[in-house]
Amino acid sequence: MRKKLIINIGRQIGSGGRIIAKLLAEEFDCKFYDREILNLAAKESGFSEKFFEQNDEQKGFLKTHFNIRLPLLADSDFYKSNFSQESLYQFQSDAIRDVAKQNDRCVFVGRTADYILRDNPNCVNVFITSPMQTRIANVCARRGCTEDEARKLIENGESERAKYYNYYTAKTWGHAESYDLCIDASILGLEGTKDLIADFIRRRV
Fold first, then answer.
1. Highest taxon of the source (predicted)?
2. Gyration radius of the chain over CA positions
3. Cβ atoms within 10 A of the Cβ of 83, count?
4. Which of 3, 56, 135, 156 lies in the 20 to 30 Å Cα band around 74?
């Protein structure tokens, strides 16, 4: 029986973290979960996946923290509810725990999976970073936008991501003490970074 393994990847926008996470999933024969968690949480809760997307870690988290209006899967109308952001987070957390329990190997991207699975002994938590100018260039290439637009997207997105992470974990997003390994992907490139993380994981587990 092969060893259980859960890889949790935190990442700066434009760092290539999601690509590296997928490469690691292939390397270790893991199931890959990023936005897929939103779909699982929607199925579990009975609410629309679109609503979970609108209240995700990078979509104006604090703006929607109270007085949420929810669309049902079976109803196109919106209705008023006392349903809280904490309840949404709980559905997402439950989905992550269920996936980790049902699969012997998986990779999670973001969504505080490192915190949600903090008591799981099979986890390796990694944060991937890169210099701002490199990230701006990557976002420009991916989205076809200007450097100013890319910088604004990065700064706004990471502000929301940090608020979300810090609020639910009582830790600091991107700070080294929150992870087992932090690495600048611009130094070795995507494949080289994947190889280094893979070597660390093999030594760690």
1. Bacteria
2. 17
3. 16
4. 56
